[in-house]
Write a structure and sequence with these properties.
alpha/beta, 22% strand
Length: 224
């Protein structure tokens, strides 16, 4: 029988967000796929998890997937984790999930940490329907994507890095309009967690008034 592929969420900040089940699974699998073995090594050491680690990231996932599928077919149980959050959500994991489905591998994704859910809940913006857009394209296709999203009536979820946040906010103003409502959350579940809500102009002023650190989640709505 084939083994089981586990997608295991890891904390986006506070280590206490790790679930008992996640620790149990990681202690029981044959080996663990990690986005960065050094980063994951710190987490696993904290929870006294001692298992072989293998790199699985955006630069090697095409080559590594075939070997992982072979190991699963041989009966090994394997877990994949990323530096933070749920594998496959703006992180490596999709290709492995697709290959697992194609080869009829049993796959289980544990419930757990992902940055956009708490940001969406505390945004104060409609969350009965939303569109998760992740990171915008870096260059090619960026404006096309923004134009497309500006037509969306649902609340939109975006990820952004600190060094691009000012540019992104200005572009949201340009394409979505000055009446756009937005919530910015950063350092989720960490010591300096912060959420700022307001109009796009208010958020631009806030962002330019200080140096923002940590990964940022933007919740955007221009239809209310």
């Amino acid at each position: 029988m084939s083994g089981i592929l586990y997608f295991v969420p890891t904390p986006v900040g506070n280590l206490e967000d790790m679930t008992f089940r996640a620790v149990k699974v990681l202690k029981e699998v044959d080996y663990i796929l990690c986005e960065d073995t050094r980063t994951s090594g710190i987490l696993l050491k904290h929870f006294e998890i001692s298992k072989p680690l293998k790199s699985y990231h955006l630069h090697n996932e095409h080559q590594a997937t075939e070997k992982v599928i072979t190991d699963l077919k041989s009966g090994q149980n394997i877990a994949i984790i990323t530096d933070a959050g749920t594998p496959g959500i703006s992180d490596p994991g999709y290709l492995l999930g697709k290959a697992g489905a194609d080869h009829h591998i049993e796959m289980i994704c544990l419930p757990g940490a992902t940055a956009f859910v708490p940001a969406l809940v505390v945004s104060g913006l409609p969350n009965n329907e939303f569109l998760f857009a992740g990171f915008l394209p870096q260059k090619k296709g960026r404006q096309t994507k923004l134009k497309q999203l500006a037509e969306e009536k649902k609340t939109i979820v975006l990820y952004e890095s600190p060094h691009k946040i000012n540019t992104t906010l200005e572009q949201i103003k340009e394409f979505f309009g000055e009446e756009t409502k937005i919530s910015l959350s950063r350092e989720i579940s960490k010591k300096f967690e912060e959420t700022k809500r307001g109009t796009i102009n208010e958020l631009i002023e806030f962002s330019k008034s200080k140096t923002l650190k940590g990964e940022i989640v933007l919740i955007v709505n221009n239809s209310i």
